[in-house]
Amino acid sequence: MKSTPRQLPTRYLALPTLRVAYCEAGSGANLILLHGNSENKAIFKQYQAEYFTDYHTYALDSRGHGQSRSVDRAYSIAQYCQDVIDFCQARGIRKTHLVGYSDGGNIALLLAKNAPQLFERIVSISPNYLASGSEERFLQAITRRYERMKRWNRWGWPNRKKIMRYELMLNDIGISSEELKGIRTGMKILYAEREMIKEAHILEIAALIPHSELQKIKGCHHLNILEQPETVAAIRAYLKTAS
Is the Cβ–Cβ distance between 40 and 61 less than 8 Å? Predict the structure, then answer.
């Protein structure tokens, strides 16, 4: 039976335009954990309390998610990328590993381009750098919900944050194929056997990033890939290559 990990205390750090909430645990090499769209740092509870206790982990709530607080007119992967850089600077983190899932994996791609000096190893799980990289049925479902939420907002429903989060999924993240070719940070890309992202798109990302590694996690889907023992083992094995 799967054990229930202990609850980690939430800490807060004031950045220039964001009060970021995060959980910190473990000791060893630094490891930043970034969740996906409309999720929060709690998805990494097991990682921090059990699987990666030999790392100094930081699980962050992204802007507009969880317990982080900011005033925004729109969200962007570029802004989320800068938030992570600002967090590292504020905490005095000069070198770290990074694991990013879904939107967190997209942030990881941009961080590899914008702040390569910060990262030793990056694991990007189920990323897509183009909105068109999402499976068509998923993109259509998100678009329908997005249009419905905008109507509700016009009628006075207070759902602006959710609308802005959906816009992240409907827009490209802000990195080109040529810029992906320029990434030199060590990167491993993981993806699920049953994905919300087109397999061809994930294969394209891996082909564009020089010397990146790629692994399909069998017997799972996009929403439960983090829970798979094979995923944890793949992350641990790749991080160890930095030693």
Answer: yes
Look up the CATH number of domain 11-240: 3.40.50.1820
Nearest to 150 by CA among 173, 174, 170: 170
pLDDT in tens, 31-57: 999 999 999 999 999 999 999 999 999
Domain map (residue ranges) of the chain:
11-240
pTM: 0.96
Task: Quote the tokens at residue 216.
Answer: 């399909």
Q: Is the pLDDT of residue 86 over 50?
A: yes
End-to-end alpha-carbon separation of the chain, Å?
A: 33
225 within 8 A of 196, measured Cβ to Cβ: no
Residue 141 token pair? 């479902």
Q: At what angle do helices 77-91 and 103-114 cross, to 10 degrees?
A: 70
Rounded CA gap, 110 and 32, in Å? 15
